[in-house]
Amino acid sequence: MIDPASGPLQDPAGLYSAALELSGDEGMRGLPLIMGFTGFADAGHAVRQIIDELITVQGAGAIAAFDVDQLLDYRSRRPRIRFVEDHLEDYDAPALALYRLNDGLGRPYLLLAGPEPDLQWERFARAVVGLVERLEVRQTLWVHAIPMPVPHTRPLGVTVHGNRPELVEGISRWKPVVEFPGAVGHLVEIRLIEAGHDVTGFVVHVPHYLAEAEYPAAAVTGLEHLGAAASLMLPSDRLREAAREVERQVAEQVAASAEIRELVAGLEERFDDHTADVPRRSLLAGPADELPTAEDLGAAVEAYLAAHGDEDAEGPGEALGAGGADDGGTDDGGAPPAAGSSPHAPGDAPRGEGSEGEEPPH
Questions:
Q1: Alpha-carbon distance 116 to 97, whole Å?
Q2: 38 by DSSP, 3-state: which?
Q3: For residue 31, is it left (φ>0), alpha (ψ between -120 and 50) or beta?
Q4: DSSP letters along 254-270, please?
Q5: Which of 34, 176, 192, 232 is the most buried (most CB within 10 A)?
Q6: What's the gap between Cα 23 and its chain centre?
Q7: CB–CB of 196/130 below 8 Å?
């Protein structure tokens, strides 16, 4: 019987074209890989916002590009084409590619991002495993978001899965056995683990009544967890500012409707009941739950300021990427980030876990 993960199928390397430096540049090896696929599971458009933020901030070109004509069903997700007065302009062509980027401290990492493939999932997964082995990726992280019956007034929860127990334990305390519609990221995770590679997935819980809207807070939460797990300072200033504006608009709509206020109050009560006895563990803590020292924090700040030079003369709030002088710590009053982590520690208590009638995190 042919094993689809390793049998004599089409060469997976034929799915992508790579730049010449991909095989010869030692600077490409041993980096963390972040993955994000838009499409099936992207509540609050969190993954799309994360991809846009990471790529737009640096404007980097791709070092490997996948052949989307082999992977996408254009009739199920038709690209947008613009009509201007009396003629058609070029359409917004989809792109699924591998990028080499740098974080806020100049540390390199890889990003595999684009629309989720409709076709050839096994071949695509084998291609990703091949790239991970070719580039000696030290760990793979990916993120997606799902709607959950939780309130927007509480810290966004995250479910973690993979083969790194130090990241899973203390965050994902609910351990169900469920079946659900899969995404390509799930298959890639399975194939990477089978091949002996470290991989971790983060599922952001988005309030179900905001799942169809663009919800920047979900993207910020995803970036916080990715950054902390990979020891990267990922950009989030613009998303934080957008999140504050969205929160203001949502608060106005809630205040104007007694029905919505009652809904949110009920979700708050249930959330508080289910999380009252759940200890909160920071991703910034070490294996023994030790917090970063003052020297660690000082070194991180000095390195960031040195990397940015005069461009951060506006003040310490902007220099630290905290989105303002009043954001010096975590949303829940926790410790500031350690050296090499994201500006804010993620709220790591899963939202609404164990509630009856909830869609299980996946």
A1: 11
A2: strand
A3: beta
A4: HHT-HHHHHHHHHHHHH
A5: 34
A6: 27
A7: no
DSSP 310: G
Q: What is the chain's pLDDT, residue by residue, as a tens digit (362 residues)?
A: 455 555 556 889 889 998 766 666 777 899 999 999 998 779 999 999 999 999 987 767 789 999 999 999 999 889 899 999 999 988 888 999 999 999 999 999 999 999 999 999 999 999 999 999 999 999 999 999 999 999 999 999 999 999 998 888 867 766 778 888 899 999 999 999 999 999 999 999 999 999 999 999 999 999 999 999 999 999 999 999 999 999 999 999 999 999 999 999 999 999 998 877 665 554 544 444 444 444 554 555 555 455 545 444 443 333 323 333 333 333 333 333 333 333 333 333 333 333 333 444 45
The phi, psi pair for 201, rounded to 5°, reads -115, 140
Total count of residues recorded for the chain: 362
Question: What is the C-alpha end-to-end distance of the chain, expressed in Å?
Answer: 30
Closest CA to 339 of 307, 306, 295, 308: 295
d(CA 159, CA 174): 9
Q: Are 35 and 129 spatial neighbours (Cβ–Cβ below 8 Å)?
A: no
* Alpha carbon separation from 162 to 157, 174, 197, 285, 361 (Å, rounded): 17, 14, 10, 19, 13
320, 312, 325, 362: which is closest to 341 by C-alpha?
320
In the block, residue with structure tokens 């916002």: 49
Nearest to 154 by CA among 323, 361, 353: 353
Q: Report residue 67 as tokens.
A: 């052949």
- Residue 70 exposed, middle or buried by CB count within 10 Å (0-12, 13-18, 19+): middle
Q: Are 251 and 70 in contact (CB under 8 A)?
A: no
Q: How far apart are CA 276 and CA 259, in angstroms?
A: 26
Is residue 192 within 8 A of residue 132, CB to CB? The reply is yes
Distant-in-sequence, close-in-space partners of 333: CB < 8 Å, separation ≥ 6? none
